[in-house]
Automatic annotation (TrEMBL):
InterPro entries registered for this protein in UniProt: Cyt_b245_heavy_chain (IPR000778), FAD-bd_8 (IPR013112), FAD-bd_FR_type (IPR017927), Fe_red_NAD-bd_6 (IPR013121), FNR_nucleotide-bd (IPR039261), RBOH/FRE (IPR050369), Riboflavin_synthase-like_b-brl (IPR017938)
Pfam families recorded: FAD_binding_8, NAD_binding_6
This protein's name: FAD-binding FR-type domain-containing protein
UniProt keyword annotation of Isomerase present: no
Species whose genome carries this gene: Aegilops tauschii subsp. strangulata (Goatgrass)
Membrane topology field: Multi-pass membrane protein
Assigned protein family: Belongs to the RBOH (TC 5.B.1.3) family.
Entry's Gene Ontology molecular function annotations: metal ion binding; NAD(P)H oxidase H2O2-forming activity; peroxidase activity
PROSITE patterns per record: FAD_FR (PS51384)
Length: 345
């Protein structure tokens, strides 16, 4: 019996020491910061959006992620989430899909302080901090800590003149930050040229991207609500068509299928008349079923001969092999070189 107890402690000691060291390291890290909740929104598909105040000195790159802690859910648990805001924004945001006990409880905790949105606001439930009213009139948000930022493959997108961004479901989160960042950098560079100001040389040198293709593939129509404002903003502000946006809803019949013909006809008429897609509710027209990825690569290879294309994928592993194999195949068979990067969850 004593031998068994001794062996049990041997097996338990190492994990316990590692856990204690990790907790101590996180407690001592200077990157752990308290933040003020500015806005909360609950969207279809069990997605919670949190907008935080941006801590002083907090700098990050699009594509990176942070760890989030909420003591009201669990004082000891930290969970990673991609940042959906852009570095130039005066806030930090994340979009969290309910996929487990912790995220489910986090959504429940914040839903309690939310109300149905007013007209013109997105989401099923919302709550916002109003600086113009007293503390007693503002929602009593749970306290949140963030730790980070931490590096991820997508943060290196600026190394490429051409990028192909693919997000599967909630995997669109780092890509949203990237396309916002591309627009912001392009505006800055254009403003410097028009004013005759050379601007920040380091920024100009580090930012090489001149064309981006964004493909967002999701099963649920309601998912497009998560980033409706961002999509509309990019569609309106991207005057030079730097970013090509493609929304795909896989729960609808394929393009060309007779059963989807009526939807497609109504969709085209409404988009032509009002500039809004009836499926996504945005200015970006929605396609049906899955993209033909071979055709996507082929078109990019023909449009950008003798160039390097950075392919960035975030989502479930189901698409990883196909996208990687196509990148290798077209790199061998054409003079366009595709370099594949992935982030699975």
């Amino acid at each position: 019996m004593n031998v068994m107890l001794a062996q049990t402690w041997m097996y338990l000691a190492v994990p316990m020491v590692m856990y204690a060291c990790e907790r101590l390291t996180r407690a001592l890290r200077s990157s752990v910061r308290p933040v003020k909740i500015l806005k909360v929104a609950v969207y279809p598909g069990n997605v919670l959006s949190l907008h935080f105040s941006k801590p002083q000195g907090f700098r990050y790159k699009s594509g990176q992620y942070i760890f989030v802690n909420c003591a009201a859910v669990s004082p000891f648990q930290w969970h990673p989430f991609s940042i959906t805001s852009a570095p130039q924004d005066d806030y930090v945001s994340v979009h969290i899909r309910t996929l487990g006990d912790w995220t489910r409880e986090l959504k429940n905790v914040f839903s309690k302080v939310c109300r149905p949105p007013t007209e013109g606001k997105s989401g099923l439930l919302r709550a916002e901090y109003d600086r113009d009213v007293g503390a007693m009139s503002n929602p009593s948000f749970p306290k949140v800590l963030i730790d980070g930022p931490y590096g991820a493959p997508a943060q290196d997108y600026k190394q490429y003149d051409i990028v192909l961004l693919v997000g599967l479901g909630i995997g669109a989160t780092p890509m949203i930050s990237i396309i916002k960042d591309i627009i912001n950098n392009m505006k800055r560079l254009e403003g410097d040229v028009e004013s005759g100001n050379p601007g920040d040389a380091s920024t100009s040198a580090s930012f090489r991207t001149r064309r981006a293709y964004f493909y967002w593939v999701t099963r649920e129509q309601g998912s497009f609500e998560w980033f409706r404002g961002v999509m509309d903003e990019i569609a309106e502000s991207d005057k030079k068509s730097v970013i090509e946006l493609h929304n795909y809803c896989t729960s609808v019949y394929e393009d060309g299928d007779a059963r989807s013909a009526l939807i497609a006809m109504l969709q085209s008429l409404n988009h032509a008349k009002n500039g809004v897609d009836i499926v996504s509710g945005t200015r970006v027209k929605t396609h049906f079923a899955r993209p033909n990825w071979r055709n996507v690569y082929k078109r990019i290879a023909l449009n950008h001969r003798e160039q390097r294309v950075g392919v960035f994928y975030c989502g479930a592993p189901v698409l990883t092999k196909e996208l990687r194999d196509l990148a290798q195949d077209f790199s061998r068979k054409t003079n366009t070189k595709f370099e594949f990067h992935k982030e699975n969850f």
